């Protein structure tokens, strides 16, 4: 079975078992280990419905599936995909512990069954991701409760901003653009599942967000590593298995040219061939 049929079959199976407790993760590692200048790398791990990572043909970014109808999340929420760094992937040293976070990018994209096309998400629709509150923000908030006079200005407002989550919409990102995912344990590993919600006047469809991993200071990191390449998460919201497969594969596969486009391409190739013959003659 080729890669593309396996991917399509896997997406159907993902939808079929989404009423049960499954999970899948974006794996996190560093291309040269936990040393300054390494780049954060993403991969696929867990109950993912493919054995070869699919990529978006428009952006070149990795694609991960998600389902707002899964058993754990109910009809409008999920905690998949999660994020997992295996032992030794990050620095777990007490004096140099890694905090890894996400950066929200771009705009929310939407696939609609009636049109069969990907577009910018409609007005009034949003996907919200609740990251962890960065350590500095949490500490400042605690200080504001214990001794308000010594707390940094705006400590409560900053805490409330992060607590409200990051919102992806068709016009951009609202709320914190970066937030913490987790920090490494002493063995350089972590496994975290954040909460995702779809909200507003969301119609049945597929919804795609774009993220990037970072260790910048805003998430509690040390700013030693190069940010990961961006990646996409494509969520199913109320679609049938066949519809979700169509939406996902519309991004994972380059569209097949229409007959008229094929004729134009062939005509162009013939003209190029004729020009080359004249040049040789």
- N→C terminal distance: 47 Å
Rounded radius of gyration (Å): 22 Å
Q: Shape, please?
A: globular
Kindly estimate the percentage of residues that lie in beta strands according to DSSP: 25-35%
Number of helices: 5
Let me know the number of strands: 17
| Parts with pLDDT < 50 across at least 5 consecutive residues | 16-21, 261-277
**How would you characterize the largest beta sheet?**
6 strands, mixed
What are the secondary-structure elements, in order, as H or E? HEEEEEEEEEEHHEEEEEEEHH
Query: Overall mean pLDDT score?
Result: 86
Q: How helical, in percent, are the residues?
A: 10-25%
Q: How would you classify the quaternary structure? A: single chain
- Total number of distinct structural domains: 1
Structural class, from helix and strand content? alpha+beta
Structure, described:
- With 281 residues, this protein is α+β, with helices and mostly antiparallel strands.
- The protein has one domain.
- Helix content is 25%, strand content 33%.
- Strands 3, 8, 9, 13, 16 and 17 form a 6-stranded mixed β-sheet that branches. A 5-stranded antiparallel β-sheet has the order 4-15-10-11-12, with no helix packed on it. A 4-stranded mixed β-sheet has the order 2-1-5-14, with no helix packed on it.
- A hairpin with a 4-residue loop joins strand 8 and strand 9.
- Helix 1 packs antiparallel against helix 4 and helix 2 crosses helix 3.
- It starts with a helix and ends with a helix.
- About 8% of the residues have low confidence.
């Amino acid at each position: 079975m080729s890669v593309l049929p396996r991917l399509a079959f896997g997406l159907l199976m993902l939808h079929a078992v989404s009423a049960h407790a499954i999970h899948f993760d974006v794996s996190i590692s560093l291309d040269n280990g936990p040393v300054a200048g390494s780049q954060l790398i993403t991969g696929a791990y867990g109950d993912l419905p493919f054995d070869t990572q699919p990529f978006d043909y428009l952006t070149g970014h990795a694609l991960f599936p998600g389902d707002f109808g899964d058993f754990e999340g109910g009809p409008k929420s999920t905690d998949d995909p999660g994020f997992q760094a295996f032992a030794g992937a990050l620095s777990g040293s007490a004096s140099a512990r890694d905090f890894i976070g996400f950066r929200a990018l771009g705009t929310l994209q939407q696939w609609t069954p009636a049109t069969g096309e990907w577009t910018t998400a409609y007005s009034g629709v949003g996907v919200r991701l609740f990251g962890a509150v960065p350590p500095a923000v949490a500490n400042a908030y605690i200080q504001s409760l214990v001794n308000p006079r010594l707390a940094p200005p705006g400590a409560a407002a900053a805490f409330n901003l992060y607590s409200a989550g990051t919102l992806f919409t068709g016009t951009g990102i609202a709320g914190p653009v970066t937030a913490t995912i987790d920090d490494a344990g002493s063995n350089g590993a972590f496994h975290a599942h954040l909460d995702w919600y779809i909200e507003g006047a969301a119609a049945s469809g597929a919804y795609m967000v774009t993220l990037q991993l970072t260790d910048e200071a805003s998430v509690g990191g040390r700013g030693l590593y190069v940010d990961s390449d961006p990646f996409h998460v494509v969520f199913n919201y109320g679609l049938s298995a066949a519809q979700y497969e169509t939406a996902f594969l519309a991004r994972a596969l380059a569209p097949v040219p229409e007959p008229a486009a094929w004729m134009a391409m062939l005509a162009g190739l013939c003209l190029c061939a004729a020009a080359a013959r004249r040049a040789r003659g």
